[in-house]
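Feature request, filed as a ticket because there's no other form

It would be nice if the structure record came with a short human-readable summary line next to the tokens. Right now we just get the raw output. Example of a typical job, pasted below so the devs can see what we mean:
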Amino acid sequence: MVSLSRALVLAIVQLGDPAILKVLAKTAVVTLLVFAAGGTALYVALDSAIGTAFGIEAAGLGALAAAAATVLAAWFLFRVVALFVLQFFAEDVVRAVEQRHYPQAAANARRIGFGEELGHALRSLGRTLVANALALPVAGLLLFTGVGAAAVFLVVNALLVGRELHDAVWLPHRVHAAEAAPIGGATRFLLGAVVVALLAIPFLNLLAPILGAASATHLVHRAREKGPHA
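Raw output as currently delivered:
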């Protein structure tokens, strides 16, 4: 099986592919629009609430409060939103990689309809929100350690992200539901950990889901060539 480092290198090399650049542009624009829409709604709500509570002369504080809240939300929720958005474009990334490196697999892949994509995206979003909510009390107990809370969220989200990226590649090729996943849990976790780490870095966080989907494509197809969990 191709190593994770090799899969990442292959993914980086293909970033200049027009098909990949198109997906990058779409995911970046949609992700930023989601935060812009959220920030606007938050501004309207806070501006109205502050104006009602403290008088019209204080209503301008809503803009400052909304801006601060939007920045905080972007910092904590960017990975959730970016990966949710990518669910709708991951197929384009996978197809671009398959057409260049695995043409036979590309020819045999089944098309996933919008309804199925939406179902996967909503289930992914649900798992992410529930898992992070459950991890929050544990992270709170470890907050005094300085790194414990961050480690908890890294582990939780690495497991989630690794699974989602793997499934984005695997589902169009899976013959039946009971068929074993081609790569093991450890590899999926490491892939997820790399992507989660990149999501925490400004600007690189826009590339992280694309690199993750492309890397997962190499990992899955090379593993399929060797057999499950090779």
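Something like this underneath would help us a lot:
The radius of gyration is 20 Å.
The chain has nine helices and no strands.
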